Batch of 3 targets.
Target 1
Amino acid sequence: MQRYTNTYLPTAIALMFLAWISAMRVAMADELLTYVIKESQQAPTMTVEGSVEAVQFSTIAPQVTGNIVALPVKAGDTIKAGQLLARIDTRIAQQQVISHQAQVVAANAQLSAARQEYERKRRLHEKQYISQAALERAESDYKIAEAQAKAQLAQTGVANVQTGQHTINAPYAGLIAEVMAELGNMATPGKPLFSIYDPKALRVVVNVPQSQLAQIKPGAGIQVLIPAATEVERSLTATKVTILPTADAVSNMTKVRITLPSNLTSIRPGMFARAMLPVNNANTSVQIIVPAKAVIKRSELTAVYVVDSKGKPQLRQIRLGRKQGDFYEVFAGLQAGEEVAVDPISAANFK
């Protein structure tokens, strides 16, 4: 039996599919969603730049000398309060403790002998068998032995404390920002081993000219932009501002701290930040904004589809300012009353 194959069937199905896609595009174009550009009154602000820092940041250095024998953490680790960060070899410290304990025993023995000698000479002096000078020498020897025993006991206590300092624990819960040593390195007092911070409490630090400090409006909402953060956390609103009471004598700048919302996940110390500080000014500026999803960004081109009087979308280049939530500020290219297509893809396929 001869079998026939219809070679036109796949082609026909493909043509039907393309026709369906074209019909869908036309239907979408017929329902083009637009946004009417409006003017809004914007409170005057002062734009300043700075960086993010942790409210609680610590550099941890050892207080004793010795080889690092345990280093169970690395940069980026989440740590709990009291967690072991490093352990320094304690063998030398333990030998010092044993030596001091032996010296305490010897000092106590000398103290006991000096006390007995003083008591014996005191009785002899009462019977006038020895002079006052001999009694005073015995009393002096007794007091010296007593002081030496106390000193040795104190040194033993210091050695015991230093033995405990060979274990370094986390002072609070947070993140390891940097580990500055390797296993087997020699730890020395004052040489940092770790830097840690609490990621739940962050702030932005900016420099403000001294002449403009009085213009800052306290208690107002502050917009903070952190470009390196995720989309959700890129634009934040803060309300707490702390102006430090000192100024730099060279730059004439004063540091201003802006407390960020807690429990941010994508923001790290050192990130660049831009803050818009509200200022006390009677004048307000007119602002034009456009939905962020209506903006097309292609290489050097930034544009939107503007719907003309005949209902036809036309591509127009614009100049954007900063992003404010789901909108962009527009510096040039649009006027109040004009309509822009919210969906650029639908506007491009509009017929």
Target 2
Amino acid sequence: MAYIEKRTGKQGTTYKVQIRRKGHPTITQSFARKTDAESWARKTEADLERGQLFPEREAQKRTVEDAAKKYLAEHVPGMAHPEDRTRHIRWWIDQVGEMRLVDLRPEVVNAKIQELAQTPTRRGGTLAASTIRHYQIAITHLLNMARKWGWIQHPDTERVIKPKVDNDRQRYLTDEELPRLLAAVKGHQDLELLTVLALGTGARAGELLSLAWDQIDQKRGLITLYKTKNGDPRTIPLPEAARPLLAARIRRLGVRLVFPSRRDPEKPTNVRNAWLKALELAEIKDLHFHDLRHSAASYLVQEGISLVQVAALLGHRDLKMTRRYSHLAPEHLAHLGARLDRKIKGGAA
């Protein structure tokens, strides 16, 4: 039978649930809301009736750090960007690693996410919502994997805060900014080629930085991307402006990446500081490297290329992502309207 005890202390009011059942150890859990406590009690008792609840004592042996180490060893290496997921998981280890896995409730995770959102960066600002979202995704995936391992049963990850990311940012290089940017990156071994590729293909920074030499077919003028955001490989054109830059690069023996790090050739280089210096030199404000992807798409739409074709180049599965560019081609839409007018007039003749 479940017993719910209301407790009031310095941290506020909590509701402690105790479930005692013959043949099972006492199961306890605390909640910030009574409705959550009652819901958990009903579900847990139902699981006991069906014999689906795993022994609580075994679950209490596992810590968040135990789960994180298993996750880092077995799941992270196969991800597209393992270094990023590793960094996010290690942050969670620092924050809550010593906690028992069963005690890592959504309330605890949400509190940590809110703390992270308010933490000032070295530049005096705060982390972008998209960055915080990666931390949320990391801990949510870890908890769901722990459930599959049988270490916990109900992680309640649906109650974890999902930071709202503004995907409607519409910042493009203007006709005046484009030549200034190209002049500012000119001569930089990595950034010039990356910028030309981004503007000429609409590919993401991660897709380009992870590019290997065997993905480039210079004879056919094609690049095949394997490590894409949605996991689907796609082929993109090799811009003519990139060909001489590629030819001028010195390919290091035994190094497969086109943009290898100087410290570790198996990892991509980091061009963030070079990018910020280039923007300062070009006197361009509020431009992210990702905005070059938006710029490439906007150029195509303004040239009359269909949204379906643009979506195929960018790797969008859903045209909703591509429709943000539809307002950039009013002349093209007017041309389509004229063709429909001719069709209607011909039918009425």
Target 3
Amino acid sequence: MSASRTSKSDHTQNANAAPKPSARKSPIFDGRLNLEQQRKRAKELLRNLRAETPSASTRAQSAGHKISPDTAQLADAQLIIARENGFASWPKMKAHIDQITERNRQIANGAPSSLDTANTLHLRCGSDIRHGLKTAGFTGAFLEFSDPFCQGPVPDLPLDQFVQTRADFIAKAYDIAAKDALARSKREYGALATLGDFDHVVLWFEHDSYDQLILAFLLDYINATRPDTRLEVISVGKVPGIERFIGLGQLSPELLIWCWDTHRKPITQDMLDFGSQTWRAIRSETPDDLHALVTSTTSPLPHMIGALKRHLAELPDPETGLGLTQKLTLQIINDHGPLPVGKVFGHLMRSVDPLPYLGDLMFWSEIQWMMDCHAPLFTLSDADQGTNWAERIITLTDTGHETLSGTRNFLDNFTGTRWVGGIRISPSLVS
């Protein structure tokens, strides 16, 4: 596993869920904003605005606030700070901080507010928020469904054959015993039949393709099975105080309550129908239906279109033959290498991928698929006894440089098979 990262699932214990790490800790990793700290930042910014420092002027422009150094007031600096943290105004930021502070006080005193009931089910594509929900005071049951549809074949098959196909892929891609992967798959898919046993079911998801593709499947499943329960969804794309939001697993317990209070919506028939339409498109053998969806002007699911665009970016680029993850990986090695594979993954997650979705073992499987070629794109240092894959040094070859530049097409070199949903990508063939 790569260092300093938390995962949605511990892959050594979870036979069907490739772990998806959250971001490296930023100055405010879990979204806890400190009001006194923000006041000090605003006073410092005001001094810099009046001194006409270039960085302060740039920050004002980025925040969309026109200001003259001669007339700059503390309120101006506070507005810029608030907008940098994702708020429309300083009072709205202060109200948010006060609310989060009170939630934190309640949790610390062992007296959190009443949120859900014992007959609520929290459904999540990983285990990363299970403990946080309990700490926050949620009392309902927790169900993990985490088949990573963003990797491997997602064929249009009857459910029993589909589950077997997915389990076969998971076992091979993540080096899991086939019987364990199949048992895990059957258990997760089978557990979905219990949704109607609860009074209230809440789906917790974020904005990337790992989550949103699973959300599409679940909405299609719900649309077909019609469980008799109250259904809601939480879909989060950004969180105040976190500059690069990657996953709900980043959030402190009180921020999970904030998601519950501000992002929880009833699942409507429009959402169910759009989920079914999306799931059909994901499973299609051609990208036509997906392209039609991403050009839609409206969607009842706020983050699905962006996730599908990122999903489609994994199709081979006509010039290089590379999917976006492959291209970014080669670019990172070109810019920073040779370097450990784990550091390549770190660059990808922290700063390079426009919508990161991979877990660490999922990234390692991408590296292995890229090795299925006649002429290698890169070399890996030998794996000594006890060496973790993340520590192996990766170095770009001449073929890798040529492929990255587009003077050589990867599909003319590729000898394996990879999938983007239902689309099979083979040597010199996309079908």
